[in-house]
Design a protein that fits this description.
Elements (H helix, E strand, L loop, with lengths): L5 E6 L18 H4 L9 H12 L3 E3 L28 H28 L4 E9 L2 E2 L2 E2 L4 E4 L5 H17 L5 E3 L10 H8 L5 E9 L8 H16 L1
Parallel strand pairs: 1-2, 1-3, 3-8, 6-7
Antiparallel strand pairs: 4-5, 6-8
Helix pairs in contact: 2-6, 4-6
C-alpha cells in the first residue's frame, strides 16, 4: 500500500468476557465460553503487536460474541446467540448501545478522519479460525478475506501472501477462505459507505492450530513482521 495510507487495526472477537449483568444467561456454559464460538483465540495479541509495530490506531472488543457479535450487521439472524436472543427487545437494544454501536462508531470515525484528510484507509481486522468446523478440516494456515472487485484490496492481499510465503515457507495462505470476503461483516458494511479509493478492508484469519505449535511465538513475530511490511 502507499506510504501515506492511514492505517487501522481492529479485533472484533478479542475476548470471551461476559459482564456480570448477563452472567446468568451463561450458567453451565463455561465450555462453550472457552471455545471458538465465544471468541477468536490469539487474535487480540496479534492485533496489539501489529498496531504497536505500525504505530497504528487499535480498536478492540473483548465482550464475547455469544452476547452480541460486533462483526454482524444489525439485521443479521446471528447478531445474538441462542444465549442472548432470549433477552427482551429493550435488553437487546441495551447490548447494542453499550457494545455494538460504540465499537463500530469508533471504527467509522477513524475512516471518516482519514477521508477528511484525503488519506486512503487500510483497515486490517484480525480474526482466528477453528481448525475444524462441523467435521470439516480447514485447509489454510492464514485466510485473507477481501472483495476481489476492489483493486486496492486485491493488490494488498496478493502482496501480503507473497510476504507471508517468503517469511514463512510452507505456510498455507488462501484467499477468501474459509469465508467470502464479501459476506456479511464490518468490512463489507464499510465498503458500502466508502469507495475503493477511500477504504480497503481486509480480514486476516489465523488458524488456531498455529497457536498450539511450540514455535508459535516465533511464528507470531514473523506474521506480524510480514503484515507490517505489506501495510507499509
Amino acid at each position: 500500500m502507499a506510504r501515506d495510507d492511514a492505517l487501522l487495526i481492529s479485533c472484533e472477537h478479542g475476548g470471551n468476557t461476559i459482564p456480570q449483568r448477563y452472567a446468568k444467561l451463561f450458567t453451565g456454559a463455561q465450555r462453550v465460553l472457552n471455545s471458538h464460538r465465544a471468541y477468536d483465540r490469539g487474535a487480540l495479541e496479534v492485533a496489539r503487536l501489529l498496531a504497536r509495530k505500525l504505530n497504528a490506531p487499535l480498536i478492540t472488543a473483548t465482550v464475547s460474541r455469544l452476547l452480541v457479535d460486533l462483526n454482524r450487521s444489525a439485521h443479521h439472524r446471528k447478531l445474538f446467540s441462542e444465549y442472548s436472543a432470549v433477552l427482551s427487545k429493550p435488553q437487546r437494544q441495551r447490548l447494542l448501545d453499550q457494545y455494538y454501536h460504540p465499537h463500530r462508531d469508533a471504527i467509522e470515525q477513524q475512516v471518516d478522519k482519514a477521508r477528511a484528510s484525503r488519506r486512503p484507509m487500510l483497515h486490517l481486522a484480525i480474526h482466528s479460525l477453528t481448525p475444524e468446523l462441523d467435521g470439516e478440516v480447514r485447509t489454510a494456515d492464514i485466510g485473507l478475506l477481501y472483495d476481489p472487485r476492489r483493486h486496492r484490496e486485491r493488490e494488498f492481499c496478493h502482496s501480503l501472501r507473497t510476504q507471508l510465503q517468503q517469511a514463512l515457507p510452507g505456510l498455507r495462505v488462501r484467499m477468501n477462505y474459509p469465508y467470502r470476503g464479501t459476506a456479511d461483516g464490518l468490512t463489507t458494511a464499510l465498503r458500502r459507505q466508502h469507495g475503493d479509493r477511500h477504504y480497503a478492508g481486509i480480514e486476516v484469519e489465523i488458524n488456531q492450530r498455529l497457536l498450539d505449535r511450540r514455535d508459535w511465538l516465533a511464528l507470531r513475530r514473523q506474521l506480524v513482521a510480514a503484515l507490517s511490511i505489506a501495510a507499509s
